[in-house]
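Q: Can I see a sequence and its folded structure?
A: Here is a first one.
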Amino acid sequence: MARTNLFTLALLAALISLNACNGKSSKEEPRQEKIDTKKTSVFIEAESNHDAQGAIEATSQNNSKFIHLKEAGWIALDANIAQAGRYKIEIRTAKASDEEPIIWIEDYYDNKDDRTYNISGNIKIAAKQDSLVTVNRVGAPMNKGLHKIKLHTNNALKVDWVKFTMVKKYRETPRKMVQNTNGDEWSVVWADEFEGSKIDTTKWTFDEGNWGWGNYEPQYYTNHREKNARIEDGNLIIEAHKNDMGQEWTSARLTTREKVSFQYGKIEFRAKVPAHRGNWAAGWTLGDDYIDELSWPYCGEIDILESVGYEMDNETGDGIAHASAHSGAYYFKLGNQPTATTPVENMNNKYHTYAVEWTPEYIKAFVDGNHYFTYDDNTTELSWPFDKPHNIILNLAMGGGWGGAQGIDETVTSQKMIIDYVRVYERK
């Protein structure tokens, strides 16, 4: 009997220890996933190009064959991507004149909407003339299948090869919550109050990379790096740093993608956003249908809050909150993006609550309970991609097409976005 009790106690202790370890691991950094790069990498010799703009010729250097673009132009290449995910782009190249060329990769140049998808951002080649260098950008989203790409340059350039290597597999979000919108009271169904010591990785995924994020943004979003994202005094801190990790800027972008997504209800967060020219703070949703840039805006996007530093008074913190909805029928290229703004006092030193109420009939945006934006065109599939789940995103960008429209304040070395909580409600 004593031996049986001892055995039982030992077994219980082992189970308790195992459960404790399992519980602890959910808040720790996830292990780096293993990717078979032999199956997912795509290597393209530049001489395989099938079209070009500008004067080109084939040359040889160090037993390698090059395509020599003698002037501004592009070469077209085909990339057959075996698996959807996020990719590292590498380009082996050399500048071919005294000028420093800027190069970039365009994806889906044959797209039906006549859009320009820059999936590398603009890369400056600053090496000595004819010196071979390999430049790279990390995190570019690419779907499975054939990608018609162009390598662009604004000056003479030699190109040896382009390589795409998967760094993260695409994964569908396993948990999809549909919120009830009928009832008298709002009730919380999901939340993160940021009360722990670590960012809860059962709720949040880190987006990583410096591919420009579709907006020519210079920052590198880091993965589980406390300098850029951490829990502090019951808040989530997202902090951007200048000249960090060999990058122009670093920052963080957290999303519920791969964890949980939401359809309808009220999505709300309480935050302080930074002042100073050059930052671009946002809390928003993106449709789960997003896989790569060809998915947007058809997947849908709801901007709960966007704030740019150049619209804010650095002394008072008075700024402007932006809310908008993006769809295949309404977005910036068509010049008809539905959006609204409202002035907000002391955005950077005082907490304000930003929210959207999302139903099958409309989307309404609020600041501190004050309604200032409504979108309600649910007449077609193109105008209403909001009958499907979306994930929540929190990020602090630097520069880019909008945040950097007036440049980045050169005296600023860091910027901080502080989030008190994120909550999702349904009606009861």
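Q: Show me another, different protein.
A: A second, unrelated one:
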Amino acid sequence: MQLGCVSLRVAAAAGAAILLAAAIAGCGNHGAAAPLAAAGALRPASAASGCGHTEASGSLQYTLTLSGHRRTVIVHAPSGYTGSQKLPLVLNLHGSESTARAQEKFSGMDATSDADHFIVAYPQAAIPDGTGYDWNIPGQPMVNGKLPPASAPSDVAFLITLVRDLASRYCVDLSRVYATGVSGGGRMVSQLACDASSTFAAIAPVAGLRYPSPCPAARAVPVIAFHGTADPIDPFDGNGAPYWTYSVPAAAHLWAGHDHCATSPRTTSGHGYHLTRYTGCDGGSAVELYAITGEGHEWPGGPAMPSAITSVLGPQSDAVNANALMWAFFRANPLS
């Protein structure tokens, strides 16, 4: 069924929970979505850096072919981008049954990119589902309860390759590459922290923090996560769909154990949020969890969504600005 600007699917599983499908394109205060300029195919990574290569600021859509699969990515270069200075790169992953364009609108991260001068890329998953796509998270079921098809491409390999290829076109500081994502994208980002810790300096899952097991990351990975306490899709306390069994605080605690942080976290309560912060971690790392009081399956501080969306995903909150907080965390945690 269609509700305004969001497509939703009702899943007949454990209480017939309503799951997020494909999200926002041209909703809230953005008006109609303008067509994206197609910038062609990303060239394969080479020893050459993208520094000195002229590319327009703003959003461009590229294609990338990997192992026979044609993939899509939207890249937003900040205002004033010249290609002469190495900039951080943030990958921002959409949720299950959604798209890259929807995530660009849902997270509102282009404005943060322009203000803080980093490149943000919105890759698109490849497993068709509803009106969007699902990520291939190794060994984990999708929102329909099924495992990814055996023919599905490796998204870990795709996202690592994407970073290298973007660095061949844009002027990227490879010591400052980060990943965020919402829901299924947050779960995919959690996987990247384990399987690609030499590529991604830190991660910031939104409504999707997990601790993959096994986790072969050879370094302490800085983690900042955001989750609404009233999330009806991926419940804060766990006991959700087959891919969502344990609680978000448990996931943060497991990451703190991996990073060899102090056993007892520091806790802070603010207006509309509760922060749990693990410090004393290896390599100066940290694990932070922002629990947003009463918020649903939303992007904290993100663009205002219409009632057709919040009636299903739950309330929004501006108690914290996830984009501002994760960028400050990223900036403090480059690869050493």
